[in-house]
Specification:
Low-confidence stretches: 257-261
Number of strands: 11
Bound molecules: zinc ion
CATH class: Alpha Beta
CATH architecture: 3-Layer(aba) Sandwich
Number of helices: 10
Strand content: 15-25%
Largest sheet: 8 strands, mixed
Length: 261
């Protein structure tokens, strides 16, 4: 079961990047009862292998935000507002915590540098290599604005899309998030899901928790989590990959294209 913990959410919204990252490291260490792999710094990441063969991802960096004092954050009628609220991606960190506290143990990757072309995720990918660490059947990003969006980036696996849409999400387009890199790199499907905040960083408590509930249902379904969804390249995204990938990724991307044509 997923509980609403608004105090926890407000706490995360008021933390600077490094303290949010450190807080998540401590919480996950206690909940999983083991040490995560932690690489600190602006291109850093936290990798916590779990028991469910699905990766969930959020990032701990935000783009030049002012971090509000808790007393500057207003909650009115289920809506959280504040000056430059770092909804992206404190809502994702909060969601990871609530899912794990709901007794799910997926693999977790928390990155820094998402706003800098996925620098932390690229560092993680390069460090781990192309073979997934442990069983990985698909990747979920908890980083998308809006409500019920599902952004698949370079992946175009129709059965994966059908599965995700059966939980109420609808396909939308986006430029980049970390899962785009990881799903390609590990050759598994990936999707970035809405966390119920809008472009101005205003958070709907109900929409955020609806999303967490949907993700909880996906991760609790053994039949789904044990199904391997393979990355199927979307050729019209090659330009995107040239822009957002790194050199090694781009070389592989081109080679994959030759193989499939
Ligand atoms: Zn983000």
């Amino acid at each position: 079961m997923i509980i609403k913990d608004i105090e926890q959410l407000i706490f995360l919204l008021g933390q600077e990047d490094n303290s949010a990252f450190q807080f998540m490291a401590n919480e996950l260490k206690n909940l999983y009862d083991k040490e995560p792999i932690i690489v600190p710094g602006e291109t850093g990441y936290l990798w916590m292998p779990g028991e469910i063969p699905v990766v969930i991802n959020a990032h701990a960096d935000t783009e030049g935000r002012y971090f509000p004092q808790q007393e500057d954050i207003m909650i009115d009628n289920g809506i959280i507002q504040g000056q430059d609220l770092a909804a992206d991606d404190r809502t994702g960190l909060y969601s990871i915590l609530q899912l794990v506290r709901g007794n799910l143990r997926p693999h977790v990757i928390i990155t820094m540098g998402e706003e800098n072309r996925g620098a932390g995720m690229r560092a993680f990918s390069n460090a781990m290599g192309r073979i997934p660490q442990g069983d990985v059947n698909f990747v979920l990003g908890l980083d998308r604005r809006n409500f019920n969006d599902a952004v698949f980036y370079g992946d175009n696996n129709p059965s994966f899309r059908t599965m995700i849409e059966s939980f109420g999400f609808r396909e939308a387009r986006g430029t980049y998030s970390d899962i785009a890199t990881l799903s390609f790199w590990w050759n598994v499907s990936g999707v970035n899901l809405s966390m119920g905040y809008n472009d101005r960083g205003v958070i709907s408590i109900e929409q955020l928790h609806d999303s967490i509930d949907h993700i909880f249902k996906i991760l609790s379904n053994n039949k789904i989590t044990s199904t391997h969804f393979k990355f199927i390249r979307r050729p019209e995204n090659d330009a995107w990959m040239q822009k957002w990938g790194n050199r090694r990724l781009n070389e592989l991307w081109v080679r994959t294209g030759e193989e499939s044509s």
